[in-house]
């Protein structure tokens, strides 16, 4: 059946199955976009560019200028997921601005716009699920490495990080691909997929939370209180900001299935998602450069202090895997 069209909010553009007055409705909405939404788009572009630069540096350093260890593989994949999601957000904002500038030629670009927004929506689901899976894996493996250091050092498969990362990417891709096929060829599956996605996100988030809580208790409430390593601090902060910034966006996009086809979602969760994808390089730099109560060193030096810490300790023996 035909979906209702809401024309009261000029910041939203909705897809409908009919074509009677659709062109005129969209053109009217396009011509009276509020100034505040354009400012919102500018702020979003600024955050996206900063995040792209930061994650690009992390990818360049971890991929080409550092010896790989189990955790650098995970953080490299996480940087790829955040970089890709930021790139999609940046392209979404560009599409919005392009639409505003070319309102008079709207009929020539509408079909492209519809396809583009659909692709962006599904890819956002893909990278968001991948980031959640990677952060959960980092938290769980970090916890295991502290609770069972000898077993972890002696029995952990050499290429486990790469295999697990590949499986996580594949599972996220399979889920999103199945979701897109269901929306294309069948109706009524939106609620089912939204429920599955929220259930999976809840399970992974719970595992992430429990792992970090157990690790914190182990390090702070044991027989000897221990100093937190830089890598542990990075994991803890990344997880904390993901819960604060990333989870609201993930819940919002899945709860709003079927898709509303907003060209630019003027929502707090959208800005929170941008901040979540951009914050990790800042965390790496601040934690790595913090020495003797002040910040020291360049970005490259800070990244080495964070990610080489694990490898250096691992060379000293089985018990060196303890982050203290």
TrEMBL record:
<keyword id="KW-1133">Transmembrane helix</keyword>
<protein>
    <recommendedName>
        <fullName>G-protein coupled receptors family 1 profile domain-containing protein</fullName>
    </recommendedName>
</protein>
<keyword id="KW-0472">Membrane</keyword>
<keyword id="KW-0807">Transducer</keyword>
<feature type="transmembrane region" description="Helical">
    <location>
        <begin position="270"/>
        <end position="290"/>
    </location>
</feature>
<feature type="transmembrane region" description="Helical">
    <location>
        <begin position="229"/>
        <end position="250"/>
    </location>
</feature>
<dbReference type="InterPro" id="IPR026234">
    <property type="entry name" value="MRGPCRFAMILY"/>
</dbReference>
<dbReference type="GO" id="GO:0005886">
    <property type="term" value="C:plasma membrane"/>
</dbReference>
<feature type="transmembrane region" description="Helical">
    <location>
        <begin position="37"/>
        <end position="62"/>
    </location>
</feature>
<dbReference type="InterPro" id="IPR000276">
    <property type="entry name" value="GPCR_Rhodpsn"/>
</dbReference>
<feature type="transmembrane region" description="Helical">
    <location>
        <begin position="192"/>
        <end position="217"/>
    </location>
</feature>
<keyword id="KW-0812">Transmembrane</keyword>
<feature type="transmembrane region" description="Helical">
    <location>
        <begin position="112"/>
        <end position="140"/>
    </location>
</feature>
<keyword id="KW-1003">Cell membrane</keyword>
<keyword id="KW-0675">Receptor</keyword>
<feature type="transmembrane region" description="Helical">
    <location>
        <begin position="160"/>
        <end position="186"/>
    </location>
</feature>
<feature type="domain" description="G-protein coupled receptors family 1 profile">
    <location>
        <begin position="54"/>
        <end position="284"/>
    </location>
</feature>
<dbReference type="InterPro" id="IPR017452">
    <property type="entry name" value="GPCR_Rhodpsn_7TM"/>
</dbReference>
<keyword id="KW-0297">G-protein coupled receptor</keyword>
<feature type="transmembrane region" description="Helical">
    <location>
        <begin position="74"/>
        <end position="100"/>
    </location>
</feature>
<comment type="similarity">
    <text>Belongs to the G-protein coupled receptor 1 family. Mas subfamily.</text>
</comment>
<dbReference type="GO" id="GO:0004930">
    <property type="term" value="F:G protein-coupled receptor activity"/>
</dbReference>
<dbReference type="Pfam" id="PF00001">
    <property type="entry name" value="7tm_1"/>
</dbReference>
